[in-house]
Amino acid sequence: MKRARRAAAGSLPVLGLLLLGALPGLWTLLLRREAAAQRGPEPEPRPPAGPPPGRWGWERSPAARGEPGGGGQKTFRALLAVPAAGREERGGGSPPAAASPVERGIFWSRELEEQVPPGFAAEEAAAWLSAARAARVASLERGGCGRSSNRLARLSDGSRACVRYGINPEQIQGEALSYHLAGVLGMQERLPPMALALVEARGRQWEPVREELRGSHWAEGAVVSLTRWVDNLTAVVAPAPWGAEAGAGRRLQPLSAGELGGLPPSQLVELVQWSDLILFDYLTANFDRLVSNLFSLQWDPRVMRRATSNLLRAPDGGLVFMDNEAGLVHGYRLLAMWDPYNEPLLRSVCVFREGTARRVAELHRRRSAAAELRRRYRAREPLWARLGFLSERQAELLQARVDFVHRHIAHCRAQAAVL
User: Fold this and answer.
1) Most buried of 112, 191, 364, 374, CB within 10 angstroms?
2) 260: confidence class by pLDDT, cuts 50, 70, 90
3) What is the pLDDT of residues 300-312, one digit of tens each?
4) Angle at the Cα of 308 (from 302 to 311), degrees rounded to 5?
5) What is the pTM of this model?
6) Strand 107-108 vs strand 102-103: parallel, antiparallel, or unpaired?
7) Cα–Cα distances in Å, from 234 out to 243, 314, 318?
8) Among residues 345, 343, 372, 361, which one has the least CA distance to residue 413?
9) Helix axes 354-366, 265-284, angle to 10 degrees
């Protein structure tokens, strides 16, 4: 017992020394708490601000010309793979890894594609087309459908349609062929249902609006297009990869990594649809959408901050590719003028829907782009023969553009493999 007491007594000086050594740290902690109480609660951390938006123009970079170099620039695909910043930590450990919106280097993730609004389902579109072909035109109104020669029709079944009368037949032909090419590519749900109609003042379909037809100056026997009217559509401004303010003569620049960090799912879902749109417009050589905005940069440096031509957004966020009459026939006649804009725009995209890339690969391997378009057009459009099909030269151009897109996708895949 005496030994135990002496041992306990001997440890007291040691404990005292330890307490004395801890007093400065305790005192500092108390002072910090008192100061924090006077300042109030700490503000929530904010994610770091990204660099200012890049500038766009039309001096083609080495990569856009197919030349080596430009290693310092990040590709669109690589940028989209950057994980979002500012995730909250859970359980005191490291933050969970953010799911990448890109799989296997160049494809949108399945999870992201599942979030894309469905658009015009095939069954719904087929039902509307069948009803529209059988319905009578109850009235024709001016306005709401583009050119002054077009009309908004109310059909006998209560639905409405835009009736487009082309300045020349190739515009209606381009509208119809673009619609069915979208079906070949697996993206027809982004285009409103479209059917051809023959203007006959004494025919059953047009008889109720015979007087209105006289005032329209439409030629008897002309072929027009009927496109389903969609309510509550809103304008679309090009997103950051293409919508940054630009000046003429500057090199086309990709986004910087900082600008993509923390993009919300809604913006990524829209980019999925934009990647299809840009590929589609390149294949059809459609200059009357984003390309026309880009062309206007030479005199209007802020045009990309305004609405994109012939592109609208449905209430569910789905993009609607409107008015495609500049595609294929008309667009192919003007390649020399518009490809200096269309081609760099295609090269700005290095991430794709896997289904779209697969269909492009099949059309390339089989060299069947025109044949498959013709087969689908003849099977689904009763009036196809009234306008005819692509010329042999136009069919060759379509296949050449499919081959170009296929090579571009392969180039993106090769770039992804070395990153």
Assistant:
1) 191
2) very low
3) 888 888 899 999 9
4) 170
5) 0.76
6) antiparallel
7) 17, 7, 11
8) 361
9) 20
